[in-house]
Specification:
Blueprint: H1 34-53, H2 58-61, H3 73-91, H4 106-109, H5 115-137, E1 145-146, E2 151-152, H6 153-179, H7 193-200, H8 212-215
Antiparallel strand pairs: 1-2
Helix pairs in contact: 1-6, 3-5, 3-6
């Protein structure tokens, strides 16, 4: 008897995908212009992360599925809140804001299976995303160099996309482990539009259909 865990998916149209096209809130009209396109990609990856964490228990979110790594879905939420906070220090002169969770790998190491910590992680991430979005909105010129190191606004925006995209890849594997093999199948639904807007903040929820094929990798788990 084959005891290999069945790959988890809620898709019915394309079995190698994670969610059906009609249920995917990331579809939308491709925006015009460079800045809207960058914001669009960031919104998509932010939502992909949110979808990967949807409808899991605190236990599942805190599961460290790839030892010896301390990475977990809850740790990713905390880490990205920390990173959003740090990015504001790249824009403004002077010291970066103090860390939320402590020095070193506290964002991952301190992620434990408590619902209060899960709730706090979402609140922290939404708040830090909105704060960084607001700071960057004051710099519409993508070529402008900001902060003590003179980083271009364009480079920072691209780096934000890269950070979320990379961690969405980690989230793919962590979600698969949380949903199959150990804890059985979980049928997670895509977030509704109101939840989507709250999570994405002012970046918006419109996602480029032109880039759908590329971003579809973020739905595989």
């Amino acid at each position: 008897m084959d005891d290999t865990p069945t790959r988890w998916t809620r898709a019915t149209v394309y079995p190698d995908m994670w969610v059906d096209p009609d249920d995917d809130p990331r579809d939308g009209i491709s925006p015009d212009g460079e800045r809207p396109t960058l914001d669009d990609y960031l919104a998509s990856y932010r939502l992909t992360l949110r979808m990967k964490c949807a409808d899991l228990s605190a236990d599942q979110l805190a599961r460290r599925a790839v030892p010896p790594s301390t990475m977990s879905l809850l740790g990713l939420l905390r880490h990205l809140a920390e990173v959003e906070r740090d990015w504001r220090g790249w824009v403004s002169a002077g010291a970066s804001p103090p860390r939320l969770y402590g020095a070193g790998g506290a964002d991952f190491d301190g992620a434990v299976a408590e619902q209060t910590m899960v709730d706090a992680a979402y609140v922290d991430l939404i708040r830090e995303q909105a704060a960084t979005d607001a700071v960057l909105a004051e710099h519409p010129d993508l070529a402008q160099r900001v902060g003590d190191k003179g980083i271009a606004v364009r480079e920072l925006l691209v780096h934000r996309i890269e950070e979320y995209a990379r961690h969405c890849g980690h989230a793919d594997l962590l979600r698969a482990s949380a949903s199959t093999g150990v804890s059985g199948s979980e049928d997670a639904a895509a977030p509704d539009r109101a939840t989507t807007q709250r999570f994405l903040g002012p970046v918006g929820v419109v996602v480029s259909t032109a880039a759908r094929a590329f971003r579809a990798e973020g739905t595989r788990a």
